[in-house]
Amino acid sequence: MNASDQQIAADALSVPEETIVDACDDPPLPEFGIIEQNWETDPITPAHVATHAARAAESLSFADVPDGGEVALGVGSRGIANLPTIVAGVVDAVSDAGYEPFVFPAMGSHGGATGEGQRTMLNELGVTESTIGCEIRSSMDVVEVGRTPDRNVPVVADDNAVAADAIIPINRVKPHTDFDGPVESGLSKMLVIGMGKQRGAQIAHKWAVDWSFRQMIPEITGRLLEELPIVGGVAIVEDQHDETTLIEGVPPSGFLDREEELLETAYELMPTLPFEELDLVVFDRQGKEISGQGLDTNVIGRRPFSINEPAPETPDIKRIFTRGLTEKTHGNAMGIGSADIIHADIIAELDAETSLINALTASTIRGVKLPPVVETDRAGIVAALSTIGVVDTDTVRVLRAADTMHLHQLYASPALVEAARDRDDLRVVEDPSPIEFDNGQLVAPSLRE
């Protein structure tokens, strides 16, 4: 579908602002101020990131790798801070040790489940052959390397990685959007789902319906460690500003135990919304590089399409209005079903094929179900607030955020601005003033920080 056809679809599906405002009796809207979360962080300075990455790789044992052997470095599709620099640091360390590194995309079905699509995703994250200093081998071909002992589930892996003399996944450790467990997103998950490409990801998600991720990932990880020359991984932890705060080499023996400890740190540093009960949250965008589910389920407190997993206990958000997709998500609107209302811009940017492939692979087709579509921001806010009961503009609790990753500064309604004045972890940056619209669209820019 070309851009013109997508715009036609957006126009056909969206409801005009006038219709919504009339149906809702043109209610008054709350004002917005700006609040800021006070976070104490200690990130690695950008000038030292490559050095930390190199040291992490150097800490791993290459004793069983032949001189001049090939080392496959797994890199994913998430928006990890300093990713090209980290990968380049690992490449330099491996090269200096006398081995031949190459990068392979370890991202499951992302990139439209094609080798070229996955190479493109790496390139757009800044991971190119020129920036990292080594070859990128991108293919969707996998080979079966074994079966799980109890359920006889096929264990597959990228054929380029399997053919190498050593494998090192490079990934951020963080809370997962679909499940809770001792090991969530990180090195082990990259081995099981990322390195398994589309087939491995699909196998994992299908089996997760009856066999939870928290049990499956450790078991398949153990099988991969037995069958493949995995010399360790490079684990990354980021702070609340999504800045690199830790880069560590994790030996194979630590893929479960050390990952569990790093996950606890990641939970402590994860950015969250500063209020547990909210009437409406407006997100300016969602995307795969923001979260695997577009909107991080740990931030929004919703997990409506996960596989046999309960939703996080907090926060409790009555309505979510999502305004757009990120450029780097390439139309993949996976997770759009988390929203209650979406802007027509999402339909105009949506790649239905890519989104559906992702949903089918993850066995979460409800994740791409479309909420009601509105033509303008004003229509979305009016529709959301008009469906939560009687609204008082002085007491209604509304936030506007850039996305679920960037939560340092937030637009906030008067009630939340006043609440922020009494909290040490929050600061009022700007007092409330009327929301400005231009042809129904929000005028105030997105707050990235």
TrEMBL record:
> Gene3D superfamilies of this UniProt entry?
3.40.50.11440
Question: Could you name the domain of life of the organism this protein comes from?
Answer: Archaea
Record's protein name: DUF362 domain-containing protein
Annotated source species: Haloarcula quadrata
